[in-house]
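Hi R.,

As promised on Friday, here is the backbone we talked about, encoded as structure tokens. Could you run it through your design pipeline when you get a chance and send me back a sequence?
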């Protein structure tokens, strides 16, 4: 477990970035993607003055070594602790390659990262926040892997998105019990691929009959789009929830533990909703930059604020980078 210190009388600020996902060529000097990521990170750090930067996966594309190095250098340049979890694209060349990325992260001066038990993947670890020796909150950083075979209802084998596997759920359950016993106020989970409960939360929260693909961010702030009980939700869903194809058991473990108040995921670049579902906030991190597919109005980062009593707020911080993408 890695422990960071919260200053008394001041919120601890976590800035989450997700899916920057650029290839080597897109890091070339002057490329719109590079200009966008550099501008976006500088703006986010300036505006939010984070104590910790987390990255919820798809840092680049497996094999794009230069791209990883460029991103790590940019992250390290702020002198702020930064901590990644791996996404499906980081994992797509296999465990050995992901482990080499982990080694590169560990070489960086301001990175904080633990590989954790290799049986669980790469990078299942806990970051804790304390204030003057008093436990405040704990972040479960988890590897949601790449894809795995899935047998559908017709008995055919198809590919499904990855998930937290049974061993990881067991690890989480044992560790969160210890964290609770140590007196931590609450905890959060950060991973790349959303857990299956995101599908349930979306179905429960958005009113029926809405055209989600057409909904604007402004409209999502209106209570009229949310079912009773979900009025505090916000954000859009421009693509389906790309979780594992069947119930993964994560949400049941989280509810049983009764300690984790927030799950934060990436992966679906053009979804950014935040829904409080059965007592747990399920959130999409706001996609960072223009790598891979994006919507210019849905780019920036997500700010999680920690008070002395634990996680107190979550909001998206939008950064306008359209100037770098105007038609020439
Ligand atoms: Fe991605």
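Update: got your reply. Pasting your designed sequence below so it's all in one thread:
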């Amino acid at each position: 477990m890695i422990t960071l210190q919260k200053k008394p009388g001041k919120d601890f600020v976590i800035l989450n970035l997700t899916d920057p996902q650029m290839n080597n060529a897109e890091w070339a000097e002057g490329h719109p993607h590079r200009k966008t990521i550099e501008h976006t990170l500088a703006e986010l750090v300036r505006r939010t003055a984070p104590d910790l930067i987390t990255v919820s996966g798809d840092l680049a594309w497996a094999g794009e070594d230069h791209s990883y190095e460029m991103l790590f250098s940019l992250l390290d340049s702020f002198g702020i602790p930064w901590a990644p979890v791996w996404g499906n694209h980081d994992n797509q060349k296999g465990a050995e390659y992901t482990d080499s990325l982990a080694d590169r992260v560990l070489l960086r001066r301001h990175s904080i990262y633990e590989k954790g038990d290799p049986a669980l993947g790469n990078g299942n670890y806990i970051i804790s926040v304390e204030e003057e020796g008093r436990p405040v909150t704990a972040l479960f950083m988890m590897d949601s892997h790449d894809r795995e075979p899935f047998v559908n209802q017709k008995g055919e084998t198809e590919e499904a998105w990855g998930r937290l596997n049974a061993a990881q759920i067991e690890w989480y359950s044992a560790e969160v019990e210890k964290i609770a016993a140590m007196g931590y106020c609450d905890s959060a989970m950060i991973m790349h691929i959303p857990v299956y409960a995101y599908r349930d939360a979306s179905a429960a929260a958005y009113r029926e009959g809405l055209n989600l693909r057409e909904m604007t961010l402004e409209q999502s702030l209106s209570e009229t789009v949310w079912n009773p009980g979900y009025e505090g939700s916000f954000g859009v869903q421009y693509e389906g929830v790309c979780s594992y194809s069947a119930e993964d058991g994560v949400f049941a473990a989280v509810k049983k533990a009764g300690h984790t108040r927030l799950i934060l995921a990436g992966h679906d670049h053009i979804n950014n909703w935040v829904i409080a579902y059965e007592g747990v906030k399920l959130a999409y991190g706001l996609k960072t930059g223009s790598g891979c597919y994006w919507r210019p109005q849905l780019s920036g980062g997500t700010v999680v604020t920690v008070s002395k009593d634990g996680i107190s707020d979550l909001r998206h911080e939008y950064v306008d980078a359209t100037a770098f993408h105007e038609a020439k």
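One thing I noticed while checking it: The chain has one domain: 2-325.

Thanks again,
M.
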